[in-house]
Design brief:
318 residues, 2 domains, 5-stranded antiparallel beta sheet, alpha+beta, 17 strands
Length: 318
């Protein structure tokens, strides 16, 4: 559904031609209000040629040149109609993208429906040179608009501009669209190598541990002399290198990933290290909790717990 009619002063705002109208979660139907069209450089040259031929015909009273000039003018104006019709009537809907890590590429899905019996060739997305669509009649299509996820937090899709120069490249019709689309960007995981922190003491834990106890409290990089039976083969099979299980005494201990005890020169480095630890603990099948200055997640495991921890890291205040 389209937004209600615009006031006259809003119709001629320059930002509307570049950034589009106010963002909307509703499907947008491209019509005369949403589509703008102007001649390309080739179109201006074509028009200049037609005008030049007309004046030559006028000066020399040459009927064949008159005919050629009017023929070119007719092609020029017909191209306007066909270029506009390439976009007119398309229905654009927003999709839901998946979270990514900082430094990656956020893929925003949009759905382009062609509910008409017309073939729509050469529909492109501005900034996506590899994308050229030929929309069949009565079809539904999904494409992805890519944005660089430079930093953690929310990455917004911004303005998505559909355009076409079909059929002759004489005109460019475009429609800038805005949706309420955003994708969560997790911190970029730090490099592997720093082992998971040891088990934290629980409320009933006394002492620092006893020899011979089999209480598991963390992983570390394998070093010569470590018992072979302590190698974490499950983590090795998943490509995380050779890690050795660490054990300690007592009961009531928990594996906590604590922001205040995480090595790093600043907030972002600590969040990156915590992100790496969350991934490693999840891949190793451990139960772990997360402590941030403004948030606390109790120990658990599984995909939903991993997602909750990564979301907390992504949305931690700067």
């Amino acid at each position: 559904m389209n937004a209600p009619g615009l006031k006259m002063k809003d119709r001629f705002r320059l930002s509307r031609f570049v950034f589009g109208e106010k963002a909307s979660p509703d499907p947008i139907t491209l019509n005369h209000r949403r589509i703008f069209i102007l001649p390309t450089l080739s179109g201006l040259g074509f028009a200049f040629l037609a005008v030049l031929l007309f004046f030559i015909a006028f000066v020399y009273n040459n009927n064949p040149v008159y005919l050629l000039a009017f023929l070119l003018a007719g092609i020029f104006f017909l191209a306007t109609v066909h270029t506009f019709r390439t976009l007119a009537g398309l229905v654009i809907r927003e999709g839901h993208g998946k979270p990514v890590f900082a430094g990656g590429t956020a893929a925003f899905p949009i759905h382009i429906d062609n509910p008409t019996p017309l073939l729509r060739p050469q529909v492109r997305i501005e900034g996506q040179p590899e994308t050229e669509l030929a929309l069949p009649p009565d079809s539904r299509n999904q494409i992805f608009v890519h944005r660089t996820a430079a930093r953690r937090g929310w990455c917004e899709a911004g303005t998505i501009t559909l355009y076409s120069t079909f059929p002759l490249g004489l005109f460019r019709a475009w429609s800038p669209l805005r949706f309420n689309m955003k994708i969560l960007v997790y911190p970029q995981p730090a490099e592997a190598g720093v082992p998971l922190p040891p088990l934290s003491a629980g409320p009933n834990r006394e002492g620092t541990g006893h020899q011979g106890s089999d209480e598991f409290y963390g992983l570390k990089n394998y070093s010569a002399g470590d018992p072979v039976r302590r190698i974490h083969w499950k983590a090795y099979a998943k490509g995380y290198g050779v890690l050795s299980k660490q054990y300690g005494g007592g009961s009531g201990g928990e594996l906590w990933l604590d922001f205040d005890e995480t090595p790093g020169r600043g907030t972002e480095e600590r969040l990156s290290r915590l992100c790496r630890w969350v991934l490693e603990a999840d891949q190793a099948g451990l139960r772990y909790g997360l402590r941030l200055p403004d948030h606390r997640i109790v120990p658990a495991d599984g995909a939903l717990h991993r997602q909750s921890c990564l979301e907390a890291l992504a949305l931690h205040p700067l």
